[in-house]
Amino acid sequence: MAKEKKLSPKFGAYGGQFVPETLVPALTELEAAYIHYRDDAEFQEEFAQLMSTYVGRPTPLTYAARLTEECGGAKIYLKREDLAHSGAHKINNALGQALLAKRMGKKRIIAETGAGQHGVASATVCALLGLDCVVYMGTVDMARQAPNVQRMKLLGAEVRGVESGSKTLKDAVNEAIRDWVTNVSDTYYLLGSALGPHPYPTMVRDFQKVIGREAKEQILAAEGQLPDTIIACVGGGSNAIGIFHEFVDDEHVALIGVEAGGTGMESGQHAARFADSKVGRPGVLHGCYTFVLQDDDGQIALTHSISAGLDYAAIGPEHTHLRELERAHYTYAKDDEALDAFQLLSRLEGILPALESSHAIAEATKKAAKMPKDSIIVVNLSGRGDKDLDTVLKALGREN
Amino acid sequence: MTELKRIADSFAEGKTAFMPYFTIGYPDYETSLEVVKACADAGADLMELGMPFSDPLADGPTIQHSTQVALENGITVKKCLNAVSELRSAGVEIPLILMGYINPVLAYGVEKFVIDAAQAGVSGFIIPDMPPNEAKEMSALCKEYELDIIFLIPPNSTDERIRLVTELSSGFVYLVSVLGITGERDALPVALSGFIKKVRSQTKKSLAVGFGISTPEQAATVGEVANGVIVGSALIKTVGQADNPVAAAGEFVRSLKEALLRK
């Protein structure tokens, strides 16, 4: 029997369950199952086992010696989620939720994807566990992330192109929710980031907090002290909350989230929910109350970022709460800064970062230069950049 | 303005109320108001008026398209409130229920929205992405300004949940006939009458059924067990395809209304 205890549906004033009533029983069932298996030794053992033998955890913490030297300040370490199986941190959450879905007796998994990384991670774990997988993806994203579409298909998933609205991540989520409402009795919605209705923001964070737990141990082993600053990019915010969570109580560790600045605040072409107060303010998107980019009439704004994974109008509610508490701080990096960081890390460290993670690298280079040499920055390198080669080459004018 | 009829009083004993849904601003603002008037003239007992939202996740393709068109026509929350004022001035007296998603309401300001709606002559609200747990402020305001807030019950609700939602819903209770989004379906779900009876056993409030009802035959079948029938996508499709949208809307409402009276 599921225990009586419930999880808090809110982070301060943010979060909640703004969903059609049809989903209320499904979310209640999900919460009960999650509470149960969270404390279930057998479940946790299977999860830990697969995280080690399949995902390849723990991922290393790499000292970026040449990048550090180049910036001339704080020592920069990289938490290497790019080395996790399927190329990004997304697999941590996908594996946790798929194991949960299987225990709940659901045979059909649906997921949304923007850049394709969560779609690939979902397709991967569904192949591993023998579950049917349908991934919703905007047709605009399918065009710019074609290799990931092919990967998902090879992994046995069905990719459904979404033609509604802006044909990007937000519309893929709408379509996934419409599917879930229709097929709620046998279908599990494997949401890819720390957002959406309760209990997703809490559950996704819990499946991702392994990043921060490992990073803490690793930096203590390497340096004998905690870092001064942790930096992560924030789309929905799962990689960021995953590395932040373990350090929230270590008040002297600065937590910095980096949003997509697109072509700049004045252009309006960005996905910086916190930075642009003209369009970013509290509202509801996809079941949760948080900061949302919207027009004066409450219509959701179209977003832009060179990285599809940060190109989303809402931010996870726990980030909004941490910002309000002034425990975490948020800034942004623009498309061109991310591109520079992409090239810099490739040349200096032999690592091609995902364009999403390149936003965090961009902020780290700025920050490190202003910090003393005995200080430490840990950057969450959330994914690898192979998927972005087309986009990067096109942006650099080096096609063909 | 004369005292308007409350929603609950529009469900007469022994009759099934007919409640069409139509999107404000589709195919354009003026036509949509004419359509609503035509529906009222043709015998609609209440009406649901759709306020457009960029991300209508409970709606199927037909209503999605109509709200998209409405947004392109510059329809805002304020315009929707104006529409209700205009309809009242034009003599439409049946209850008018605004149906829309929560974010535009939050952007307008919940309290201001309820006050301005009451002023405009709105009778109540349906907000599909705001279940009762998230509706405390709105419910309290509705009570204060004597407006109704209607909540939905889908067929997968637990008994406990049915009890809660029927208790908090005012005016009537909106039963969602199927799991899924709005839009026409070939057939009514087999379990529908059992579902309606299950909810009936828990409340004395009027029960109106929507989602997936499009033909006079389907409406008549549902009307045998429910107090009200809601039809949206089929009306929008009819209007969208007609050379004379206003006449077509009137004809559509008459045909469904007749089917309900025949039962």
Could you explain how this protein is built, in words?
- The complex is a heterodimer of chains A (400) and B (263).
- Chain A is an alpha/beta fold and 400 residues long.
- In chain A, the strands form four sheets. Chain A has a six-stranded mixed sheet with strand order 3-4-14-9-10-13, sandwiched between helices. A four-stranded parallel sheet of chain A has the order 7-6-5-8, with helices on both faces.
- In chain A, helix 2 crosses helix 4.
- Chain B is α/β, with parallel strands linked by helices and 263 residues long.
- Chain B has a single domain, classed as TIM Barrel, CATH 3.20.20.70.
- Chain B contains eleven helices and nine strands.
- In chain B, strands 5-4-3-2-1-9-8-7-6 form a nine-stranded parallel sheet.
- In chain B, strand 7, helix 8 and strand 8 form a beta-alpha-beta unit.
- In chain B, helix 3 runs parallel beside helix 5.
- Chain B is globular.
- The termini of chain B are far apart.
- Chains A and B meet through helix 1, helix 8 and strand 11 of A and helix 4 and strand 6 of B.
Question: What can be said about this structure in brief?
Answer:
Chain A has 400 residues and is an alpha/beta fold.
Give the SSE layout.
The complex is a heterodimer of chains A (400) and B (263).
Chain A: E1 10-11, E2 14-15, H1 23-38, H2 41-55, E3 61-63, H3 65-71, E4 75-80, H4 90-103, E5 108-113, H5 117-129, E6 132-138, H6 139-144, H7 146-154, E7 158-162, H8 169-182, E8 187-189, H9 200-208, H10 210-223, E9 229-233, H11 238-244, E10 254-260, E11 280-285, E12 288-293, H12 317-324, E13 328-333, H13 335-349, H14 355-369, E14 376-381, H15 389-395
Chain B: E1 17-23, H1 29-41, E2 47-50, H2 61-72, H3 77-89, E3 96-99, H4 102-108, H5 110-120, E4 124-126, H6 136-144, E5 148-150, E6 152-153, H7 159-168, E7 173-176, H8 192-200, E8 207-210, H9 216-223, E9 228-231, H10 233-241, H11 245-262
Parallel strand pairs in B: 1-2, 1-9, 2-3, 3-4, 4-5, 6-7, 7-8, 8-9
